[in-house]
Amino acid sequence: MIGTDIELKYRGWLDNDQLQLVLLILSKDGEQARVNGGAVRNAIMGEPISDVDISTTLLPEDVIERLEAKGMKVIPTGIEHGTVTVLTDGHHFEVTTLREDIATDGRHAMVEFGRDWKLDAMRRDMTMNALYCDINGKVYDPLGGYEDLMARRVIFIGDADERIREDYLRILRFFRFFAWYGTMRPDAEGLKACARLKGEIKNLSVERVWAELKKLLAAPDPSRALLWMRTAGVLTAVLPESGKWGIDRIHGLVRMEKELKWDFDPVLRMMSILPVSTEVAIGLSKRLKLSSKEAKRLLLWSQCSLPDVKISENEFSKLLYRSSPRAMKDTLKLELARIATYDKDGPMEEIKFLFAQAQKWQRPDFPVQGKDLLAQGFKEGAELGLKLAGLEEMWVESDFTMSKSDLLGE
């Protein structure tokens, strides 16, 4: 394999003392260790780097022996596939022995360990992910991935159908990388392969599907990837709830994110391509096994109504208090996205004003507690709860101005 003169636009991560130490330890006595995949890809592109993974010619047990001898903690997280996780001074690195797939079933693979960097590269998904760099930042490109990366071409390694059949999650990874790095049209062969094999997505664990979909939706602008997913029938396979709803509103949402400097929000972006339906929210949350926080957010959004744009500030404050402020902000954001997409004469400024009001709104504290009513002779039970709720409603209707003494008649 030939080392290239490829420049890493960002290499501060590579100079990390602990990473350098791990690479040095694993590169002694004729062995080799190199950073692989995403960290190298992103360093070349000048993109942020989160996880750093390492490939090595050493067998897993030798990796463990060498690193533990230097006082590092090593966890055999996937040792049957050659992977261990190194914990050192607040950092963690996954270290994997070079390997070759022997058998696959679309979800898991049987591997054989080896020492051939090109064979290791061949088992990866996209050419842009088959890049390595050594301790000095020298980049190794056994499959021509650098040229594809620079041209922003997302291309499967070898035969697209074969790569996908090794792990059907690669269908979503194809579109995820296109969302982050692709330009123009997706690779035709890759797109056709994804369309042919999309029915196999149902055999993947929903946790893996949702995790991959979130990464796709976190791209700066996932709209083109979603469009091609829709064209290939992949989006319907992953999110059948979006089938009759349409995805046009995502364009307006991306526009408003840029204009109003909102953070990229994968859950909100998913909402933008879903119908507003409590039934859909509950069903999707169960099907994709969303976290309780995500499921609650989706449910409350599905139950939230858009306020009249002429609502007064006081009435809007009451509405926020009685409902979910997060759900209201989600609803207003998606209404801005709808207007930006479909309705050039819509009440854009009015909705922006309401959103700004919701952003700065802080929930006031109801001044009366149950113990205050107990002190007045109320007994624990339903009567006390009803009395407390009635006083809270009086307080809200007073624009939150009634004092504790007013409410208790003191």
Structure commentary:
- The chain has 410 residues and is an alpha+beta fold.
- Among the domains are: 1-151, Beta Polymerase, domain 2 (2-Layer Sandwich), CATH 3.30.460.10; 303-309 and 320-360, no CATH class; 370-408, no CATH class.
- The protein is built from 21 helices and nine strands.
- A seven-stranded mixed β-sheet has the order 3-4-5-2-1-8-9. A two-stranded antiparallel ribbon has the order 6-7.
- β3 (73-78) and β4 form a beta hairpin.
- α12 packs across α17 (325-342).
- It is globular, with a radius of gyration of 27 Å.
- The termini are far apart.
- The model has no long low-confidence stretch (mean pLDDT 92).
Topology:
Blueprint lengths: L16 H10 L6 E4 L1 H8 L7 E4 L3 H10 L3 E6 L4 E6 L2 E7 L1 E6 L4 E5 L3 H6 L9 E2 L5 E2 L4 H6 L9 H7 L3 H12 L6 H10 L8 H12 L5 H10 L1 H5 L10 H12 L5 H7 L5 H10 L4 H11 L10 H10 L2 H18 L5 H13 L9 H6 L6 H16 L6 H5 L2
Parallel strand pairs: 2-5
Antiparallel strand pairs: 1-2, 1-8, 3-4, 4-5, 6-7, 8-9
| SSE class | alpha+beta
Roughly what percent helix? 40-55%
CATH-defined architecture of the domain at 1-151:
2-Layer Sandwich
The profile of the biggest β sheet is: 7 strands, mixed
> What distance separates the N and C termini?
86 Å
Determine the number of helices (DSSP H or I, runs of at least 4 residues): 21
CATH class of the domain at 1-151: Alpha Beta
Mean pLDDT across every amino acid position: 92
* Strand percent estimate: 5-15%
How are strands sequenced across the largest beta sheet? 3-4-5-2-1-8-9
- The CATH homologous superfamily of the domain at 1-151 corresponds to Beta Polymerase, domain 2
- The arrangement of helices and strands along the chain is HEHEHEEEEEHEEHHHHHHHHHHHHHHHHH
Rg, rounded, reads 27 Å
What is the assembly state of the chains in this entry? single chain
What low-confidence regions span 5 or more consecutive residues with pLDDT below 50? none
**CATH topology label of the domain at 1-151:** Beta Polymerase, domain 2
Gross morphology is globular
